Task: structure prediction
Amino acid sequence: DERIPMEAAKRDAVAKEMQATVAELLELYHDAKQSHWNLRGPLYYQLHEVLQEYAETYLKYTDIMAERALQVGRPIDGRTGVIAATADLGGYPGGFLEDRQVLDLMSSRVDIVAKRVRERIERVGKIDETTSNLLQELSHDLDKQAWQLRVTQQ
Amino acid sequence: DERIPMEAAKRDAVAKEMQATVAELLELYHDAKQSHWNLRGPLYYQLHEVLQEYAETYLKYTDIMAERALQVGRPIDGRTGVIAATADLGGYPGGFLEDRQVLDLMSSRVDIVAKRVRERIERVGKIDETTSNLLQELSHDLDKQAWQLRVTQQ
Amino acid sequence: DERIPMEAAKRDAVAKEMQATVAELLELYHDAKQSHWNLRGPLYYQLHEVLQEYAETYLKYTDIMAERALQVGRPIDGRTGVIAATADLGGYPGGFLEDRQVLDLMSSRVDIVAKRVRERIERVGKIDETTSNLLQELSHDLDKQAWQLRVTQQ
Amino acid sequence: DERIPMEAAKRDAVAKEMQATVAELLELYHDAKQSHWNLRGPLYYQLHEVLQEYAETYLKYTDIMAERALQVGRPIDGRTGVIAATADLGGYPGGFLEDRQVLDLMSSRVDIVAKRVRERIERVGKIDETTSNLLQELSHDLDKQAWQLRVTQQ
Amino acid sequence: DERIPMEAAKRDAVAKEMQATVAELLELYHDAKQSHWNLRGPLYYQLHEVLQEYAETYLKYTDIMAERALQVGRPIDGRTGVIAATADLGGYPGGFLEDRQVLDLMSSRVDIVAKRVRERIERVGKIDETTSNLLQELSHDLDKQAWQLRVTQQ
Amino acid sequence: DERIPMEAAKRDAVAKEMQATVAELLELYHDAKQSHWNLRGPLYYQLHEVLQEYAETYLKYTDIMAERALQVGRPIDGRTGVIAATADLGGYPGGFLEDRQVLDLMSSRVDIVAKRVRERIERVGKIDETTSNLLQELSHDLDKQAWQLRVTQQ
Amino acid sequence: DERIPMEAAKRDAVAKEMQATVAELLELYHDAKQSHWNLRGPLYYQLHEVLQEYAETYLKYTDIMAERALQVGRPIDGRTGVIAATADLGGYPGGFLEDRQVLDLMSSRVDIVAKRVRERIERVGKIDETTSNLLQELSHDLDKQAWQLRVTQQ
Amino acid sequence: DERIPMEAAKRDAVAKEMQATVAELLELYHDAKQSHWNLRGPLYYQLHEVLQEYAETYLKYTDIMAERALQVGRPIDGRTGVIAATADLGGYPGGFLEDRQVLDLMSSRVDIVAKRVRERIERVGKIDETTSNLLQELSHDLDKQAWQLRVTQQ
Amino acid sequence: DERIPMEAAKRDAVAKEMQATVAELLELYHDAKQSHWNLRGPLYYQLHEVLQEYAETYLKYTDIMAERALQVGRPIDGRTGVIAATADLGGYPGGFLEDRQVLDLMSSRVDIVAKRVRERIERVGKIDETTSNLLQELSHDLDKQAWQLRVTQQ
Amino acid sequence: DERIPMEAAKRDAVAKEMQATVAELLELYHDAKQSHWNLRGPLYYQLHEVLQEYAETYLKYTDIMAERALQVGRPIDGRTGVIAATADLGGYPGGFLEDRQVLDLMSSRVDIVAKRVRERIERVGKIDETTSNLLQELSHDLDKQAWQLRVTQQ
Amino acid sequence: DERIPMEAAKRDAVAKEMQATVAELLELYHDAKQSHWNLRGPLYYQLHEVLQEYAETYLKYTDIMAERALQVGRPIDGRTGVIAATADLGGYPGGFLEDRQVLDLMSSRVDIVAKRVRERIERVGKIDETTSNLLQELSHDLDKQAWQLRVTQQ
Amino acid sequence: DERIPMEAAKRDAVAKEMQATVAELLELYHDAKQSHWNLRGPLYYQLHEVLQEYAETYLKYTDIMAERALQVGRPIDGRTGVIAATADLGGYPGGFLEDRQVLDLMSSRVDIVAKRVRERIERVGKIDETTSNLLQELSHDLDKQAWQLRVTQQ
Ligand SMILES: [Fe+3]
Ligand SMILES: [Fe+3]
Ligand SMILES: [Fe+3]
Ligand SMILES: [Fe+3]
Ligand SMILES: [Fe+3]
Ligand SMILES: [Fe+3]
Ligand SMILES: [Fe+3]
Ligand SMILES: [Fe+3]
Ligand SMILES: [Fe+3]
Ligand SMILES: [Fe+3]
Ligand SMILES: [Fe+3]
Ligand SMILES: [Fe+3]
Ligand SMILES: [Mg+2]
Ligand SMILES: [Mg+2]
Ligand SMILES: [Mg+2]
Ligand SMILES: [Mg+2]
Ligand SMILES: [Mg+2]
Ligand SMILES: [Mg+2]
Ligand SMILES: [Mg+2]
Ligand SMILES: [Mg+2]
Ligand SMILES: [Mg+2]
Ligand SMILES: [Mg+2]
Ligand SMILES: [Mg+2]
Ligand SMILES: [Mg+2]
Result:
């Protein structure tokens, strides 16, 4: 453990934030695919495609945040049961989904995660600029999704 | 529903097999990423990369099988809680994982799913050749993974 | 003719199914382009693009099925007059087309062809697995289109 | 209709030329594929490939000319029955085709269309330079095909 | 100046048309981006993307037309103040924009420019065929945009 | 061996068919390259290229079939001596080869293998759909080659 | 507006900085193209190309900054009149431009904007790390341009 | 010769212009490469690259114009002796070349050809719009080169 | 020097950190290539490839950090003698290297540099956010390498 | 035969060396694929991939050497029986292969061929530099493989 | 001239061989294009394409050999008049060319140049291995063309 | 060591030449980057880019030559201290560099290395053609750089 560049005292705090972020992003991934599949309505074609792109964005950051935990010497937990129990975004409906309903559900959930990521940037920024920088890039992408989902409903 | 090409009497049976396959593939995806991240040992570099490729294969077939359920007029359920509760592959360990341990875990789980897919091909082949053909392609890819994981341990 | 791998007794039956499939797919190609061009309404941009993709799918399978007839030693007939006379999908309207109208027309016609292809898989599967396999791949793509066109109207 | 850039008095004339060109190009497309499939003889490999390329050229210009009609405010008609009835290139033989026969048939038909396109350039050039420019590019490609088919027979 | 291929007497007339075209195209670029950003409503995703593509088309032709002025020995003026003062397309609204409103605004402005370009083809065609040919290609792309914006509102 | 997804009783039968197919495909590879190199005559350029493409097709399926044997728990034998002794396609001539002679030789040998593959699909289809599916794809490509070689001689 | 991740109190301040940055970057875009076109002198070829690359960099960041304003719930204003009135970089000369003159003009203007961006990073860093991070990336690219323009004159 | 789309009376005139253009473009190609190789001076790197690009442009149009002669039923003559005897651009110096000297030589020769091409557009435009269109595209590229070579010397 | 965007008082401090980082990264580059070449042992293939990728990462950041010094108005020193004298990472062994030995050596040296970069982020963050941001990206990549080298030895 | 550039007296000697090289390279190809398929052990993943790359290298040079024989007017013999009888590398084991065993087998066989190629360079260099140059490139690639296989066992 | 790596005494001899090679390759380029254009007969399509590829090969080596002369401190002469006067390959016929005639003409001329290049390798090999190596690569490509043209006539 | 293809008696001599070449090439790499960074003057843009390309060429051959030493059974030494002590090219100036100064410095150093490589080709050619061939390719690239740097100063 001498060869972990980050100071020992900071590792648990950073790893904890990474674990929470990974759980939320994997939950969003399942949400986005759930919507990509069960979608109905006149906006089907464009939302089907957009949701796939959003889903890929979640996986990209999941990998970055999970590996950041390992870099600071801690394991990450991405198992389905753990995600289901800890993502804390509320239930997502089963069955078919109307396009308007998906816009409302996804914009609400992305907004929640985006806000939590902003709080993490605040906390992590005091400990580790490198991790904060990674969260800032995620924050930017989530804010973009939140904007796009929001204005489509206006 | 008149515009669903598959005969109405066959739809539930096909959709049920798709739901089970999607649950197992999503579980395997989480397993493969869990291993990709928490891996340790001399085989790290090659297994880290191989597990990422296997994970992408699981997602590719998840999308194909999930959308097949929709094509036959049924919704699919890929929510984390549902996957955790229904994949029925046994628990996957948390924390760090040794390379040999990952080979054993993944080869066992891939083998289980590959065998179930073979049974599904049998059952579905009597109902719908088109769906069976999709399962055969998945079967081939799972058999390849099972082989590679198996001989690396020999 | 000794160098045609398929047994002589099976060739006419297979070629006949190929001829019928080619006629329907070329008719669908013209329908999709007719719609791609004369389309109007708020869904214009997304349907204009989707119809082009569907049209390219029809041509891809037309070539595969037509060449399958040649492979079993029979000519194929893809002339405009023959297609117009034999595709048997009913007339397609001339002039401008509303987006909703196109969704209804195309989903109806794709559904008809998808159902006929399913019957062909049944018949051909008893004669030649290789040809059946090609029809299964077409069947999968048509079922996907039928699904997408159907749920956009819901 | 106020937002159609072309002057109202010119639209019918331009659209009429586009309709005739689209009909001929779609007929040539079917001819080229008919030959691509049913071809026989020592020149098979090279003509099979060349005919596919020519066919793709016909579709490229079909799309350009059809959409030009829409741009000037008129619908286009690309339905199989309409093409069969109006392309006015004479019948194309069914069944197998010898390579020499295909060279003769295709060079004759391409020559006819190339000559009609030249007359259209003359007529349209007096009405609309932009449309004439599109026809000139088609004319160049048809003249190239006519040359290649002609000298291969010499 | 002896090494300017165009005859001296024609240069001012050509350069003047290029200057006017550049001003209008740069104004359309700002309009398209203004709409790409401030857009709202159910058509958001597809219009956001389409407006970016249109904006890139304006810049492509801006460069061609501006460099044509230089080729005939005259400078071009693309400064923001000059564009704002001379594009002569009327004001574009600030603040958020509804999707329907953007379709109306953009189709009106593209229509105006497309009509002016048609007049320029007429005038320039009498002086310089090479420049006229460039304007014809622009005319074709503007007519395509005008068509697409128009039918989406029908 | 518990982690071989295919049922133990089926493995030998499948592996035996794979071994025979691999031997024939490797033999065809050597035949195609032998012809690619020693070819003479007016069709040289086109056949030289076509034979290279066919050769690559043989290698693609060799790898798929060989690895299928491994997947079912059996080794494969692709050694030159074994291929020479077991491919059972008759001798191939040494020295220079006329273009017409190559067409005759290759079309005869491809036809033989294509027919044997059809029999294997029959036998294997009763045991393992997944392997049969792989053979069907090979069958399709061999039938295409047989057709092209056949009609070039007509 | 509840679904805007950034806290309400911070939005105006961030949006104001984004508006100023967008105005300056669009002005620099017009400057760079103005120089790309009207350039003269022995350094023509290399500067013509470099100015095009710089211009594309300005547009890339314009889009990022403009959309950041939208993400925080505010519209952006990129209209030509607004840019001309607010960019506040002083006038840019019309007519032909000597290469040395362009180096001087552009290095001066890039330097001004780069300094303003540095001040914005200071101010924004206290409010929103995510926006500051975007400005830092812009700052790095502007500093690189300032360096290259500066040393070319030494 | 009945299958040459262009009217018989126009062919000689068009072919004559094509022959002259081909001779000049091939001469320019040799000039550009001669300069690309024997160049010296501070502008070496940028001119070496630019001259290669110009050379490739000459070959691209050579092929288009030469094949246009064939399309109208006439042979073309691109033999070195014929080019040397008929290009009529005056001698090009042997031995090493200074960068400034190359700019002067090439801008003079490009200017001469560009002017001749303009005259050909005039003459050919009265006979064949399709050929004129090809010459207009060449004219545009030559005018661009003339501009770039001219301003680099200013 | 007025046209250096960074405030004069900050330049020396930033340039000093850049110089130290460049020296360490170039030393790591030589270390990685030294290992890439002289490597032995069962892990040869995977480490040979990984070390090449790490080496390329060092060069990528060397260029970014070196040019950052220039951007703030200071020269950089990357000469071999200077690197050898100032990188301060201790000697690297000559001759053949065992795979385990390379893992130990490289993980130790990457860890040292990664820790120094973390200290630099601290110091530079107080002076210049833009430079700190660049160091944070380097820090992330070094931490990733340190993790991978570390767990391969566990 | 007058149009064979190589002097008649040299042809047999060169062709003989080409024939021997082709036989050895084709044998190595079969060896590498035999190992790629039947491999077992912890190094499976990396060797499976490396052996495929080596196999492709053998085929690349097989084609070059075989066509060199043709270029000097002699046929080549690449038939399986001939390769099995003349490659003279000793037998290769059937059945499963341990990773260590494959490293030993392949490094021995590559070493034998690499040494023979070195002798051929000596002999051929006295006759034909062009052929020798081709053998030198093969020699370099074989020496690289021999090195990599050798050090992996150390 | 002190900074020309080749010894002064060798330069003239090497440059002389380069000049002769450049003259022949440029002549072959014109021959190949002359044939590409004026070709007739059943082999048109394949020879038209092959001649274009050969022509590009001549230009590739022309550039390498011409720049080799410059590298040894001598200018090169690639002017049309010089090529026409010095290539010494005999006249090439004007007007239309039959496919068989082109095969005979080109194979004769390629053979002549290939033989001269072999003699140059002999002479240059005694002076400069680096230049000889370049000629050997050209020799290989010419021998390949000579072979292909030769066997197509057999 | 029995599995090193090169004869034992030749290995030391070849490895010694490789070591010297690697040292010089790595030194040139540092020189080129030193110049790429600290450059000033009107030729900045083009030299900045050219020096990067030259630097990449040095690294490409460094890898080839270093691995050649390993192939003949000897380690290579590329450590910074060793390069600084043994490259023997004289000191390279620190601090800012004028463009003319860089041309002089680099052309002198490339000339020195190019001459040494020529001597190595002489010596190595008597021992090992394969290594000599690699040095000839390096020699060609260095001679090209020497030429380009030389004529830019003329
Ligand atoms: Fe990862
Ligand atoms: Fe999907
Ligand atoms: Fe086809
Ligand atoms: Fe279209
Ligand atoms: Fe431009
Ligand atoms: Fe494989
Ligand atoms: Fe955008
Ligand atoms: Fe051509
Ligand atoms: Fe750089
Ligand atoms: Fe080959
Ligand atoms: Fe060159
Ligand atoms: Fe390497
Ligand atoms: Mg940051
Ligand atoms: Mg089946
Ligand atoms: Mg299948
Ligand atoms: Mg025109
Ligand atoms: Mg199947
Ligand atoms: Mg015109
Ligand atoms: Mg045009
Ligand atoms: Mg920060
Ligand atoms: Mg950042
Ligand atoms: Mg040699
Ligand atoms: Mg050599
Ligand atoms: Mg060589």
Summary: Chain A has a mean pLDDT of 98. The radius of gyration of chain A is 16 Å. The CA atoms of residues 107 and 149 of chain A lie 5 Å apart. Chain A touches chain G at residues 107-108, 111, 114-115, 117-118, 121, 125, 132-133, 136-137, 139-140, 142-144, 146-147, 149-151 (CB under 8 Å).
